[in-house]
Amino acid sequence: MAVVTEGFTEFPAPEAEDAAPPTSAPEADDGPLGWDGYGAARQRARERTGERESVISGTARIDGVPTVLISFEFKFLGGSLGERTGDRLVAAYTRARELRLPVVSLIATGGSRMQEGMRALTQLQRVAAQSALTRAAGLAQIAVVRDPTTGGGWATLGAGADVVLALPGAQIGFAGSRVRPADADPYAYSAEGQLAAGQIDAIVPPDRLRTTLGRWLGLLGVGAGAGAVGPGAVGPGAVGRPAVPGPAASGPAGASPPPPPPPHALGSSDLPASGWAAVCAARDERRPRAAAYLDAYFDWREEISGDRCGGTDTGIRCGFGRRDGRTTAFAAQCGTAVRPAGFRTAARLIRLADRLGIPVLTLVDTPGAANDPDAERAGAGAAIADVFAALASVRTPVTSLLIGEGGSGGALALAAPGALWATPDSYFSVIAPESAAAILKRDANAVRDTAGQLRLRPQDLLDLGIIQGIVPPAPSE
Question: Measuring CA to CA, which residue among 425, 304, 307, 310 is closest to residue 365?
Fold first, then answer.
């Protein structure tokens, strides 16, 4: 814990633990199953570690940010979960809600304690219930997965956290090393393999852990979405209607954060003369992409990764950033066809931001959703539907900016209804001009005229009431 904390005050032992019979009593020594030698093994673990159980918890400051910290001691019976471990975890979550503090879990565990049988396994239900209550209270949960983290500890405290960080080379998986198939690929059970599979957000070296945790806590802590930017604020000089404030957020404090202002345009300030010119400008490889907009918009940011369903997508970037002392979540398309994992990651981001009362910025830029056989098998339609549902039900304000290509439903999925803006070098269309011409059985020479008929230019979108306005470049100093 010293690696990440500047101070730690341990919570008192739960009443149930204090009231337990002394370990000298034979009935208590060997636990609820009467497992021969279990009491002696616990006593040796106490002497070896100086701890009374495999988990300790208390309040701490991480890089200056107050939090409730849960830490596993793997040397105490492999960090396994028993009844008293469950009592401690319940008490820690309860105190976190009472104190209105986020929860950070430093996990190293082999799973449930077999010497306590089903009485140990059912502790996972208690942990899951406490995590759900803490989630409903609008408090963030961050897991640091150490080596090893397997079994129920991974399936509750680890994989169930809002943000999952892992130490390099950590063994991670529901199946422990002695129960997985003999020919199993060890990479699948490593931090690196789990990152590639979209199950964790980042791998963080120990010497960077304190700073990284502090940044995440600063971004997701209570009140992180509060700020001084007024509702309806937009970039100076924007052309169009006043911004429509998003629906009131019933966030942790019950107050609605103001909607984030749309970023300034980073590319050309000239509006396209024709529909085909708009398409060409948006497809220009020299046009600024999502990374440039995120760099210009945020003072600093951290990103999440993966859809928690086995996939990642480099075509979309999601996370939380700090701007003018205020946290804003972002989901930014990067100009490529978005895969199902990308849409699911965006939906995950939007729902997390909504729960924490943090406003959202989306950047729309894709020729469309990936439509290859692999994408269909991965549930492209369901993934897009999930993003539509997330934006339709979100309570925190969302601002969207079209920064390039707006290709059909794959782009519309990330566009907030009534809060969409556009840059001059962008377009939005129900279908690509080439595809429209093909459907209408027009030859290739008719593509340019078809682009004009689609009325896809930024100024057309404004006239049609699709966007709120066209954002200008930042004013020169």
Answer: 425
Q: What distance, in Å, lies between the first and last C-alpha atoms of the chain? A: 47
Four-point Cα dihedral 263, 269, 275, 278, nearest 10? -60
Cα–Cα nearest to 103, from 138, 63, 155: 138
Q: Which helix H or strand E contains 96, and what residues bound it? A: helix 83-99
Orientation of helix 380-393 relative to helix 340-356, angle to 10°: 20
In angstroms, the Cα distances linking 13 to 85, 87, 88, 141 are 10, 9, 7, 22
Side-chain half-sphere exposure of 258, counting CA atoms within 13 A: 16
In angstroms, the CA 183 to CA 242 distance is: 61
Bridge partners of 316?
Answer: 333
With b for 16 or more beta-carbon neighbours within 10 A and e for fewer, the 93-123 pattern comes to bbbbbeeebbbbbbbbbbbbbebbeebbbeb
Q: Contact, 166 vs 172, CB < 8 A? A: yes
C-alpha angle with apex 186: 155 to 195, nearest 5 degrees? 55
β-partners of residue 51 are none
The residue with tokens 């340019």 is 448
Q: How many helices (H) and strands (E) does the chain have?
A: 18, 17
**Cα of 455 vs its chain's centroid, Å:** 36
Rounded to the nearest 10°, the torsion over CA 224, 230, 236, 240 is 110
Dist. CA 330–CA 416, nearest whole Å: 12
The tokens for 255 are 């107050």
For β-strands 7-10 and 55-62, DSSP reports them as: antiparallel
CA gap 230, 459 in Å, rounded: 27
How many Å apart are CA 20 and CA 37, to the nearest integer? 18
Rounded Cα distance, 17 and 13, in Å: 6
Best CA proximity match to 475, nearest among 280, 265, 282: 265
Per-residue pLDDT of the chain (477 residues; tens, 9 = 90+): 556 777 889 999 886 666 555 544 444 589 999 999 999 999 999 999 999 999 999 999 998 899 999 999 999 999 999 999 999 999 999 999 999 999 999 999 999 999 999 999 999 999 999 999 999 999 999 999 999 999 999 999 999 999 999 999 999 999 877 788 888 899 999 999 999 999 999 999 999 999 999 999 999 986 565 533 333 333 434 444 333 333 333 344 456 789 999 999 999 899 999 999 999 999 999 999 999 999 999 999 999 999 999 999 999 999 999 999 999 999 999 999 999 999 999 999 999 999 999 999 999 999 999 999 999 999 999 999 999 999 999 999 999 999 999 999 999 999 999 999 999 999 999 999 999 999 998 887 889 999 999 999 999 999 999 999 999 998 875
Q: Please identify which residue in the block is written with the tokens 């470049």.
A: 473
